[in-house]
Amino acid sequence: MYKKPLILAIESSCDDTAAAVINGRKILSNCVANQKIHIAYGGVVPELASRAHQSKIIPVVQQALQQANINKKELTAIAYTQGPGLLGSLLVGSAFAKSLSLALNIPLIPINHIQGHLLVHFIEDERIQIPSFPFLGVILSGGHTQLVDVRDHFNMNILGTTLDDAIGEAFDKCGKRMGLPYPSGPQIDKLAEKGNPHKFIFPISKLSNYNVSYSGVKTAFINFISNSEQKNPDFIKNNLVDLCASLQYTLVRIILNKIELVARDKSLTEIVIGGGVAANTEIRKQLQDMVMKEDWKLSLPPLEYTTDNAAMIGITAYYKILKKEYGSLKDSSNARLKFN
């Protein structure tokens, strides 16, 4: 029935347990189980995340197979996230994938999570226009902020990265200081719609290379809040929408400045965005304005492919199969896995 590779993909790098079934480049199912337990702690607790993966992975895989109307014996390969991510979480996905691969006697394919965020743009989907090589790949997530020179599916060179906090981490930590629930990024995005982005001025890091830094603006923001509350205990309540708009403007401006610099220096006229923060409306608006001004081409993923998902692992595995690159049971999960 299925002539192309039929792949079960598993993603467990952080706090989302995900499974997908992909036939060639076409997604047959893409299931994600979120872990709400972390909300009470204002951030991901690694030990709780790995335990939650253990309880969720079998139901999520079963759901993915059922939605795709696939029997596991029809699968031709198993793909899983090898890294980067939380080691305990990665080990749960790795162990399950290896066990199923062994039981079904089918190939095993370890995948780099970051590559998946960029290659999600190659999924067969009418909403996605496949980018052309070379392009500037930009990873924006809770754990990563990177600018990548992408020459082909697996020839990727990191040009710039965050020296401290990732952009998503900065959103969450500043949101936590304002009393917003975790994850704070979507809350800040929504509140910022009603605020003045220029009401409060926060520092924009100006590194001479392609790297970015978010710890400075995070610290400045938190100190500003603390000092202002000493004068007015209701400062956050009275200025919440303007605080969110001003913070969001600054965090977005930091990465946009680098995107503009790298694109011009490297003559990369196609910009491809991946990662959970790619769902942010201000980033999307500012990027669209920028590419219109510069006559660049912009690729933004559909919202369900921005946050961690298994479809991005599956599409990356598809291109690994085309190159006949498979893994083995000896492959180890790596919390700091790199692709160059």
Keywords:
alpha/beta, Nucleotidyltransferase, domain 5, 340 residues, five-stranded mixed beta sheet
Structural description of this entry:
This protein is α/β, with parallel strands linked by helices. The protein has two domains: 6-121 and 305-322, Nucleotidyltransferase, domain 5 (2-Layer Sandwich), CATH 3.30.420; 132-300, ATPase, nucleotide binding domain (Nucleotidyltransferase, domain 5). It contains nine helices and ten strands. It is globular. It starts with 5 loop residues before the first strand and ends in an 18-residue tail after the last helix. The model has no long low-confidence stretch (mean pLDDT 93).
Quick take:
The protein is an alpha/beta fold and 340 residues long. It is 41% helix and 19% strand.
Strands, helices and their partners?
Layout: E1 6-11, E2 16-23, E3 26-34, H1 46-68, E4 77-83, H2 87-104, E5 108-112, H3 113-119, E6 135-140, E7 145-152, E8 155-161, H4 167-177, H5 185-192, H6 215-231, H7 235-265, E9 270-274, H8 281-294, E10 297-299, H9 311-322
Parallel strand pairs: 1-4, 4-5, 6-9, 9-10
Antiparallel strand pairs: 1-2, 2-3, 6-7, 7-8
Helix pairs in contact: 1-2, 3-9, 4-6, 4-7, 5-7, 6-7, 7-8
- Our Rg estimate from Cα atoms comes to 20 Å
Number of helices, where a helix is a run of at least 4 consecutive DSSP H or I residues = 9
The total number of structural domains is: 2
Instruction: Report the average pLDDT across residues.
Output: 93
Name of the CATH architecture of the largest domain? 2-Layer Sandwich
- What kind of sheet is the major sheet? 5 strands, mixed
Low-confidence stretches are none
Q: What is the beta-strand fraction?
A: 15-25%
Give the helix proportion (percent range): 40-55%
